[in-house]
């Protein structure tokens, strides 16, 4: 089995430490996160983006089975859906804590400004959660007829929510580093990449710990070439967006954009950017996937771990870099010059741990109490035909 006790202990410790960090933020206020008038968005915004994007990524992979009818992914459906719901819930925890008061989320819902992308983002993610839970219930009931109807809707809402999250950043005209027309598209691509990486890690653990049967273990092995191609292809697309981000910033010299890029080229974010983002997101995965084809299983798991760490760091640096550059709201107006200082305090790291532990804990509870072994669509159709035949005979 999956060493369930060990995972639950680890997850429980992360949740307890995270709860201490969350309580500290609620009691002492947002200043314990290092936010200020100049840097109003802290690291918890980045953690929120990471969790909800990973949830969307799981949905993308799950949709290959029920929307695009790639049957080789069908046996993972329930587990991917449960993992997606868990990641989404932890994303809501991140944004709730970042607001400093969970009631602020209620206030936004009862007094929405429909001209603001962040309101539509919240509505879409709320709808996404409800539909996702409904989808999971019918998956547990093995009702493929309803699943085939609701899965495309869930996918469409997930894409809309993720693109609207990108719009929250992309439409921030005052922040040149974020203000780009293709921000929403790049968010969707990155969500797909994090979903593939997370799915590889999940399937690796399932196969190694004998959680699934021999047939599913063999199916996981057969998915390795597919996962490898999906990872390599998506990393290439993300690299394409990254290269053009540098070209636009340096050639166009757009205010705020070029300044933010200087943070990565000799500024305070140089080391983490080139090591964690360029190294862990691009260099390591590409080298592993291209030159370790004979040990594809190891290449996949290490490249996926590298990607999850790198994408996590990428989200944090994106949020910070957009605010660290000097901001001049109105041309000719006075504004504070110089690079804004940012930092991540223990309460924030603890809250991130709460999110990771929460995802593991929710998933492990599902493994223990729910039947996550998906019956094939063909078997369900055969069963329905048999029941119809028996009814007609009687």
TrEMBL record:
The keyword Cytoplasm does not apply. InterPro entries: Electron_transfer_protein, NrfD-like. Keywords: Cell membrane, Membrane, Transmembrane, Transmembrane helix. The chain crosses the membrane at residues 7-27, 47-68, 80-97, 117-138, 150-173, 185-207, 227-251, 271-291, 298-324, 344-365. It is a multi-pass membrane protein. GO terms for cellular component: plasma membrane. Signal peptide: none annotated. Its main location: membrane. It is found in: Cell membrane. Belongs to the NrfD family. This is Prokaryotic molybdopterin-containing oxidoreductase family, membrane subunit.
